[in-house]
Each structure stands twice: as C-alpha cells, then as structure tokens.
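User: Can you fold this complex?
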Amino acid sequence: MSDPSALRTEIEKEIAENTILVYGKGTKDAPRCGFTLETIQFFSQFGYPFAVVDVLENMPKRQVLSEMTDWQTLPKVFIGGNFMGDTDILEPMAEKGELQTLLEKTFGERGVAPAIKLS
Amino acid sequence: MIDESTMTGMIRAVFPDAQIQIWDRTGTMDHFDVLVRSNGFAALSPLDRHRAVEKALAPARADGRIHALAIRTELLES
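Assistant: Here's the predicted assembly.
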C-alpha cells in the first residue's frame, strides 16, 4: 500500500467511515507523542466516538496526508470529512462553543447523540 | 535548539507587526508554545494562519531546531 493513489483511496475511506478521525503517532491506548495524547484527551471530553489511526511509522501515508491537507505535522484531525487542523485550531473553537455546535450538527446528521450530556 | 529572538525574527520577516510570546514547554529550547498576534492574519482562515506561521518557521522545523510547536494566532485589534 505504498502507491500514493492507493494510499489516498485508503485515507478517503477512513475519513468517510469515521466522523471524528485523528491521524496521530501511536494509538488511543498507547499514544507515542505528547500532541497525540493531548488530542485524545481533548476529544474524550465531548462524549462522541472518535477514531485514532497510527501513522507514526508509515512515512508514505504521512506524505500523502501532508499533501492532501497542506499541513505538515501530526496529529491531523478530520471532522465530518473536513480537515480541521489540530488542537491549536480546535481548542479556540471549543472555547467559543463553535466546536460543540459543529459536533452536534455533524453527528446529528448521522443520528448519533453524545454518550455524556454536554454541559 | 533555537532561541526566542531567532524565532521572533523569522516570524516578523513574514508578519512585521507581529507581537510574539514564546513559552519553552520543556526547558530544552525545542518544544514551544507560541502566540502570534498580527493584523496580517485578518484575511486568513484559522488553518491558513497556522500554515503561515509554520511556513515562517519551516527552516527551523526542517533542521530539527524546533521539535514540537503549538501555535495560537490572534489579531492585534481584538
């Protein structure tokens, strides 16, 4: 799976299948980067399901991801199929309540309610 | 490893009006939080503001002087 077009297809499938998708270093249970850990903790507060895909050692996939997003660093977050950057972008959105609104709308369209009630 | 004045200079080369605060997260001068306030961000989306700051610091990213970087951007007038 090192062919760029095959990798792009794989990425597009992952983005379509996961309403919140984090490309990071390590897994949910074993993050291997401080920013990936911060991103997992960040999304844990909202009560919606999110997926983490470990691309730490998959340099061809990281290269394709960087080209697709014009964003060189990990983690990379997608919500509802849209690239959202990382927690540098998402934390200010959450402080303003914009992220909660986006999540309610995006998951609402997919018929998913949060597992914990949002305050 | 990079010092604050070098980082500030790289950012101001792109955003001359920038007010910049830098925090060394680990005391090792390679993990930073940076807050950049500039009116040069006015026409840019949050993603593009972030991309622009990363681009300004790209040489220090590429050679490893900056290992980790969290970026906040704001307008000067806000």
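The longest helix of chain A spans residues 4-17. The mean pLDDT of chain A is 94.
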